[in-house]
Specification:
With 524 residues, the chain is an alpha+beta fold. It contains 21 helices and 7 strands. The strands form 2 sheets. A 4-stranded antiparallel beta sheet has the order 4-5-7-6. A 3-stranded antiparallel beta sheet has the order 1-3-2. The relative contact order is 0.12.
C-alpha cells in the first residue's frame, strides 16, 4: 500500500464514530454492549449477528453463573404502573438508581382517583372506606374553599388570561388540600430503569409487608417477562391490512418486523424472588430496636436536625441499622447506642450481615460515613418531593400517628383560619388519626399494616438523609426556590440553617431563597 493509502487508512481508524441506536430489544442490546469487552466488533456488527436466543444464553452464563451483574445496567426498560396507592408508590420508587415521574398533587385533582382498600379487612372494610371517604370530602371542601379565599386576596392582573389565573390559584389551593389525601389515594407513575435496578426492585417489593406492594412486584416481574405493549403495533397492523387488501396477499416478513412481540427482560428478572436477607434482617433489627429503647418516650425533635459529632463509624452503622425499624430520632437513638459497650455495638452491626447471601448487596444502612446527616421530620406529602433526591442515602421510617400532623400554612398564603377552613381541617385530621388507631386496635399484623393507608399526607414522618456538601447545597438551593411547595421549602431552608450553625464557614456556598419572605402566588 502506498504511503498515501496508509495515511488514509489511519485517518479513518482515528475518526470517532458516534451514533444512536433504536429498535433493539433491551436484553439483546445489553448483550451487544457487553460484547465490547469480549469482541472487536462494532455495535452495529454485534447487533446484526445476535439473536434473542443467543442473548439469553449469554446472560444465563455471565449474569447468573458468573455474577457479572453490571451487564443488566445496559438494559433499560420503560414501564407504567397505574392505579396504585400513594403508599405503594413511595415504596416502589425507593430506589437509589431510579428515573421516573408520578402524578402531581399540585396539578391534578385527586378526587377522580379513588382509593385502594386493603384486602383482608373483613368487617373493618366498611369503616376503612368511610374514613377514606371522609378525607376525600374534606379534600374537596378545602381545595374549593382555599381557591375562593385566594381569589379574595390575589387580584387577577389585566394582562393575565382568566384561564391562567384560575389554573395557577387552583394549583396553590391543591398545595393546601393535598395534606388531607390519605396514603390509600390512587396514583399512577412511569419509570425507566435498568434491569439490575428492576430485579432488585422486584425482590424488594416481593418481600414487603403490604399485600398490595407484593402484588405489584409480581406484576412487574410478569410485565418484564411477557410481551411489551407496542406503541406502534396498532398503526403497523393497520398499514399491513391496507397492503394486504391492495395486492391480495400477506406480507409475513414485514409483519414479523413491525408487530413482533418484544419481551423486555425475561432472562434478567426470571430469578427475582423476595429477599430473605432483607426480611430476616428486618425482624432482627426491629426486635433489637425495641429492646434498646424499651420504656423510652420519643423525644421532641426539630424539623431538621443536622446530627454532628463523631461517635465512631461503628456507632453510626449500628444506629443507621436500627433507625428504619423504630420511630425515634436519629440523635436520640445514636445517644442510646453510644452508651453501649463496644462488644454490644459490634453485635448490632453484625445483625446487618447475619443473613446475607452470596449475591445480596449490603443493606442501605451500610452506606455510612457521609459528612452531613440530616434527620428530617416533615409531612408525608412534602417528603414525597424530598424523596426524589437520590444522590444521597435515605433511611425511611414507617408511618405512624406518633409525630402528629402539620398545618398547611405558608407566608403570604391565607391561613386555613382566615379562609374559614381551620375547624373542618382539624376535625378531618383527628378523624383520620382516630380511624387509624381504631383499625390498629382491631388486632392482628394485617390490620396494623392496613391502618397506615388511612394516614393523610399531612401526617408527619421521619427520614434520615446522609450526603456530602455538594448535595446539601444542591437540595437547599433547588428546594428553597419560590416556585416550590412551602413544606419542602421550609425543610431546605432549615438544612441551610443547620449547616450554618454547625459549619459557619460553609454558609457562603449556599445560594438559597429566604422562605420567610412571602412569594408572588401567581408565579410558578
Amino acid at each position: 500500500m502506498s504511503d498515501l493509502g496508509c495515511e488514509a487508512g489511519l485517518a479513518r481508524k482515528n475518526e470517532t464514530d458516534v451514533y444512536a441506536v433504536h429498535g433493539a430489544d433491551p436484553e439483546v442490546l445489553a448483550y451487544a454492549m457487553a460484547k465490547y469487552s469480549r469482541s472487536s466488533l462494532t455495535l452495529r456488527e454485534s447487533l446484526a449477528e445476535i439473536s434473542t436466543q443467543r442473548a439469553e444464553q449469554f446472560l444465563n452464563t455471565f449474569y447468573f453463573a458468573y455474577g457479572h451483574r453490571s451487564i443488566a445496567d445496559l438494559a433499560h426498560i420503560p414501564m407504567a404502573i397505574e392505579r396504585l396507592s400513594l403508599l405503594a408508590a413511595i415504596v416502589l420508587v425507593d430506589e437509589q438508581r431510579w428515573d421516573g415521574q408520578e402524578r402531581s398533587t399540585r396539578y391534578q385533582d385527586f378526587r377522580k382517583s379513588g382509593w385502594y382498600t386493603p384486602e383482608g379487612l373483613g368487617d373493618e372494610a366498611g369503616r376503612f372506606d368511610e374514613a377514606a371517604r371522609g378525607l376525600f370530602a374534606a379534600y374537596e371542601r378545602v381545595s374549593g374553599g382555599m381557591l375562593e379565599g385566594l381569589k379574595l386576596v390575589v387580584a387577577k392582573p389585566e394582562a393575565m388570561a382568566a384561564e391562567s389565573y384560575e389554573r395557577t390559584l387552583k394549583a396553590r389551593a391543591f398545595d393546601v388540600a393535598r395534606y388531607l389525601l390519605p396514603l390509600a389515594t390512587n396514583t399512577s407513575l412511569g419509570q425507566i430503569v435498568n434491569a439490575r435496578t428492576l430485579e432488585g426492585q422486584i425482590a424488594r417489593l416481593l418481600g414487603s409487608e403490604f399485600a398490595e406492594v407484593r402484588g405489584i412486584g409480581e406484576k412487574l416481574k410478569a410485565a418484564a417477562s411477557e410481551a411489551a405493549w407496542n406503541v406502534q403495533g396498532e398503526q403497523a397492523r393497520a398499514v399491513l391490512a391496507e397492503m394486504d387488501a391492495a395486492d391480495g396477499r400477506r406480507h409475513p416478513l414485514l409483519e414479523e418486523m413491525l408487530v413482533r412481540d418484544v419481551r423486555s427482560a425475561p432472562t434478567l428478572v426470571k430469578y427475582a424472588v423476595a429477599s430473605e436477607y432483607a426480611a430476616a434482617t428486618k425482624r432482627d433489627l426491629t426486635q433489637a430496636a425495641a429492646e434498646l429503647m424499651d420504656g423510652v418516650a420519643i423525644a421532641a425533635a426539630p424539623v431538621v436536625d443536622l446530627v454532628e459529632g463523631d461517635a465512631g463509624l461503628e456507632v453510626e452503622l449500628a444506629t443507621s441499622l436500627l433507625y428504619p425499624h423504630c420511630h425515634f430520632s436519629y440523635r436520640q437513638l445514636r445517644d442510646a447506642v453510644a452508651g453501649l459497650s463496644g462488644a454490644r455495638v459490634a453485635e448490632l452491626v453484625a445483625l446487618g450481615t447475619r443473613h446475607r447471601g452470596r449475591h445480596d448487596e449490603l443493606a442501605r444502612s451500610f452506606h455510612a460515613g457521609a459528612a452531613l446527616k440530616f434527620d428530617i421530620l416533615m409531612d408525608v406529602g412534602g417528603f414525597r418531593d424530598m424523596h426524589r433526591h437520590r444522590r444521597c442515602t435515605q433511611l425511611l421510617q414507617g408511618y405512624t400517628d406518633a409525630h402528629g400532623w402539620e398545618w398547611p400554612d405558608a407566608p403570604g398564603v391565607p391561613t386555613l383560619a382566615e379562609a374559614g377552613l381551620a375547624e373542618g381541617y382539624a376535625a378531618a385530621m383527628e378523624a383520620a388519626f382516630a380511624a387509624y388507631r381504631g383499625l390498629r386496635a382491631s388486632g392482628g399484623m394485617e390490620a396494623a399494616e392496613s391502618a397506615q393507608y388511612l394516614l393523610p399526607l399531612g401526617a408527619r414522618c421521619r427520614a434520615m438523609f446522609k450526603m456530602d456538601v455538594a448535595e446539601a447545597v444542591y437540595i437547599s438551593e433547588l428546594r428553597s426556590g419560590v416556585a416550590g411547595h412551602y413544606s419542602y421549602r421550609r425543610v431546605a431552608w432549615e438544612m441551610f440553617e443547620e449547616v450554618k450553625r454547625v459549619h459557619p464557614g460553609l454558609a457562603g456556598l449556599f445560594r438559597v431563597e429566604d422562605v420567610r419572605v412571602p412569594v408572588d402566588l401567581l408565579k410558578r
